[in-house]
Design goal:
heterodimer; A: about 110 residues; mainly beta; 5-stranded antiparallel beta sheet; 11 strands; about 55% strand; B: about 110 residues; 7-stranded mixed beta sheet; about 0% helix; about 45% strand; globular
């Protein structure tokens, strides 16, 4: 079973500041990397699905990069807003085509 | 509204009792999944189904069973609940394939006493 790790576990960021956090996954037999946003009292919502080394995806102020050779992905948030407060999950697809999830990075935006 | 519906929202259950968590989707997705989410841990896959009529075991299948009689429904059954099954359970679906994102239900909070 893959080991997917996310860091930091939690993060406090001042409103207006930009931030980023990391998802690490085994680089061998890579298939896909998913990012999800999970707001309190809601269910996870998909942000990005990335498959190619060097891939970069963007949705509004949120973007993600992927390095499959070294086994990491960064999620960036530009100009953080209070509504960005959430837990951000990443998951890597294993050889059985099942997602293995990291424990998440909890982001708290301070007004 | 298209989506995925779970029921009940929450439940307190005595140990040893049988319980079925319901999950229904109207997106005609091929694949469906059951996860449990425990504090400090990532989502862990219990069972999955890649298409109607087939099911498979995930990372933590013991004590749980599923069925997939049709495309829309994917119930999860706890035959004889134990306190370690206290968790939040999420059902999810996807079109299938490596590039398809998961769509999640709102979760069922289960407490086994």
């Amino acid at each position: 079973i893959l080991n997917v790790e996310q860091s930091p576990q939690s993060l406090h960021v001042q409103e207006g500041d930009s931030t980023n956090f990391t998802c690490s996954f085994p680089s061998s037999n890579f298939y896909a990397l998913h990012w999800y946003r999970w707001e309190t009292a809601k269910s996870p919502e998909a942000l990005f699905v990335m498959t190619l080394n060097g891939d970069e995806k963007k949705k509004g102020r949120i973007s993600a990069t992927l390095n499959t050779k070294e086994g990491y992905s960064y999620l960036y948030i530009k100009g953080s807003q209070p509504e960005d407060s959430a837990t951000y999950l990443c998951a890597s697809l294993d050889s059985n085509y099942q997602l293995i999830w990291g424990a998440g990075t909890k982001l708290i935006i301070k007004p | 509204i298209a989506g995925i519906t779970q029921a009940p929202t929450s439940q307190i259950l005595a140990a040893g009792r049988r319980m079925t968590l319901r999950c229904t989707q109207d997106m005609r997705h091929n694949a469906m999944y059951w996860y449990r989410q425990d504090l400090g841990l990532g989502l862990r896959l219990i069972h999955y189904s890649n298409t109607a009529g087939t099911t498979g075991k995930g990372e933590v299948p013991d004590g749980y069973s599923v069925s997939r009689a049709n495309t829309d429904d994917f119930p999860l059954t706890l035959a004889s609940a134990v306190p370690s099954q206290t968790s939040v359970y999420f059902c999810a679906s996807s079109r299938g394939g490596s590039r398809s994102p998961l769509h999640f239900g709102n979760g069922t909070r289960l407490t086994v006493t």
